[in-house]
Amino acid sequence: MADIQLIGVVGCGLMGSGIAQVAAQSGYEVIVREVNQELLDAGMKRIKAVLDKDVAKGKINQEDYHATISRLHPTIELEPMADADIIIEVIVEQIAAKRELFAALDRICKPQTIFATNTSSLPVTEVAAATKRPDRVAGLHFFNPVPVMKLVELVRALSTSQETLFTLQQFGERLGKTVVQAQDTPGFIVNRLLVPYLLDAIRCFGEGLASREDIDNGMKLGASHPMGPLTLSDFIGLDTLYYVANVLFDEYKESRFAPPPLLRRMVLAGMLGKKAGKGFYDYPQA
Ligand code: 3HC
Question: Would you identify the CATH topology of the domain 191-275?
């Protein structure tokens, strides 16, 4: 098996910072790249805030804190990625941007470097095809909040080799995650099942079946879900949910993936959920 020591994380937003943190806490050296200093600083600040809380709660000690921070190497350049063993891409969900990034990484990285995309909706096979190493590209789909969620989906593009899958499986497990493998089909496992459920909850609410609180409590207390579906939709972001639903609908053409009119109107109104301060619920602190 390949000896994995140096990890690259390209993109340090909500998901990228979580992945970088978990990798550093698992003992890897991690190069973290953002496109400008401001975004990079914001990402590093987010990681430190989560680690600070962990220290305050006694989950980690000061020594762990400093060791984790010392393993994170922030940069706004792509070149430091050249020697990485695995690079995880966590940039915007746009196929052109991802293909451009992977083509650039392909030119500068050593031949053995494995590329993984955290995409939740785009074809991993199309991203892999932008490189001259499509056998060494796969999907590695994390869940928000990354430090808490125990799952990672390992997605096999049509071109992904068995060796690449094996290395990424071991890597995911070393991060403390349970790794499930899926073929490169829209939504993989989790979003394919989760998104129709969330859309159905929005339909139920829109049709006046019950109040938002009762719908959420129904699933929280009746099915032991940590969050009800409307709260979870707000948490994911209604724009993200709308976008992923459209991708699924475009590919499968099945009505269960069709975003309900209420969701579209909430997105048009800027009611994007928790991050916007308003969605199905109000979030005064956001
Ligand atoms: N970063 C790090 N740790 C966090 C965190 C974050 N952003 N948010 C919460 N936590 C930690 C808390 O510190 C706390 O740790 P502790 O138990 O050691 O004190 C623990 O998680 C529980 O947090 P809280 O007590 O504040 O709140 P909850 O018990 O309500 O848990 C939750 C919050 C973990 C978010 C829980 O509600 C949950 O699991 N919700 C469902 C999340 C989910 O389904 N995510 C997947 C979304 S789909 C997705 O990401 C795919 C994409 O493609 C759309």
Answer: N-(1-d-carboxylethyl)-l-norvaline Dehydrogenase; domain 2 (1.10.1040)
- Mean pLDDT, the chain, integer: 97
Report how far ligand 1's centroid is from the alpha carbon of 49 (Å): 15
**Which residue has 């994170």 as its token pair?**
72
Q: Is the CB of 148 under 6 A from ligand 1?
A: yes
Question: Domain 6-183: which topology?
Answer: Rossmann fold (3.40.50)
Is 153 an active-site residue? yes
69 lines ligand 1 (CB under 6 A): no
Domain segments of the chain as ranges:
6-183, 191-275
Distance between CA atoms of 285 and 119, rounded to whole angstroms? Answer: 29
Tens of pLDDT, residues 123-173:
999 999 999 999 999 999 999 999 999 999 999 999 999 999 999 999 999
Residue-wise pLDDT for 64-94, tens only, equals: 999 999 999 999 999 999 999 999 999 999 9
Task: Answer whether 14 contacts ligand 1 (Cβ < 6 A).
Answer: no
Q: Whose CA is nearest to atom 17 of ligand 1?
A: 148
Q: How far is the C-alpha of 144 from the C-alpha of 2, rounded, in Å?
A: 28
Q: CA–CA separation, 117 vs 155, rounded Å? A: 9
Q: What's the rounded Cα separation, in Å, for the pair 6 and 173?
A: 16
Which residue's alpha carbon is nearest to atom 44 within ligand 1? 232
Judge if 6-183 and 191-275 fold alike in CATH terms. Answer: no
Pocket test for ligand 1, best of 17, 57, 148 (most atoms within 8 A of CB): 148
Token reading at 203: 């339909």
Paired strand residues for 260 = none
Whether ligand 1 lies within 6 angstroms of the CB of 271 is answered as no
